Structure formats: C-alpha cells, structure tokens
Amino acid sequence: MGGPPVFNPSTPYRGHLNGGLSARSTIVVKGFVPTTAESFIINLKEGESDDVALHINPRLLSGSIVRNSFLKGKWGKEEVKVAFNPFARGHYFDLSIRCGMDRFKVYANGDHVFDFTHRLSAFQKINTLEIQGDVKLSYVQI
Rounded to the nearest 5 degrees, what angle is found at the Cα of 129, between the Cα atoms of 123 and 134? Predict the structure, then answer.
C-alpha cells in the first residue's frame, strides 16, 4: 500500500494509486452497507482511459457479487459465483483486494471470497480506485 489511509471518505470516492499497481499490492476498503442499500460498485481503472480492470458490484437485492472488466469499450464475461457473500444490509465489511501476477485475490472480513484473473495484462497501468453507490465508507487505503 502506497499512500496514507483516508478515514470516512465521502461517496462517490476516487483515489489515485501513485505509480500504479504492482504484484503484492493490497487495497483495503472498510465500510457499512445501509439497510436500504441496493448495490454499490468498486472499480480499479486505468485512469488515462475508460478501461476497468476489475469491477466489483455487490447486488444486495439478489445477494450476488458481480465481477467483470470493461476493456476497449466492451464489457467482458460476468463472473457471479462465490462461496459466500460478505455484503449484507446493515452490516460492516472489511475488504482486501490483493494484486498478484496473474489475478486479484479478494478477501472480506478475513475470508477468501473470490479470485479474478487479470484481463488487463498490464496491471501496472491500474492507477485509479473508484467507489460509488449505496455504501458508507469508513476507511480506504491504496
């Protein structure tokens, strides 16, 4: 993690990863899902383009966590299956996104939730974190 943590940032949130992601980088997002929440979005982007290397979209009404990428103007194939869903209305979460050489490993509340294979092979170009939607952030470290 490169920069200092940000406490209680407002939503929507946009943060810059100085120097981009590297293997073994970890991004931490802590927050609360309001009781009226429907969904929220966490995007890891290449800031110079509209490319989204990792799109995480917890959908509270369906209980799913949609993952995808948006590269060269097109959405990829959605991934939805997870062993468990740590996001629930009225609950706090502690999310860690770890960048590896070939995939992201995502943990919530200390437990592994899913892996997402890199679709943007030059993951070092990922330099922006965006969070928006129905979530109250308490801590972000990138």
Answer: 135
Structure confidence at residue 48 (pLDDT):
78
Please classify residue 50 by burial: count the beta carbons closer than 10 Å to its beta carbon, then call 0-12 exposed, 13-18 middle and 19+ buried.
exposed
User: What does the alpha-carbon distance between residue 74 and residue 30 come to, in Å, rounded to a whole number?
Assistant: 29
- Enumerate the domain spans of the chain: 6-141
Check: CATH 2.60.120.200 for 6-141?
yes
Give the number of other Cβ atoms within 10 Å of residue 85's Cβ: 15
Q: What is the pLDDT of residue 49?
A: 86
Q: Is the pLDDT of residue 1 over 70?
A: no
Beta bridge partners of 141: 28
Distance (Å, rounded) from C-alpha 98 to C-alpha 54?
A: 12
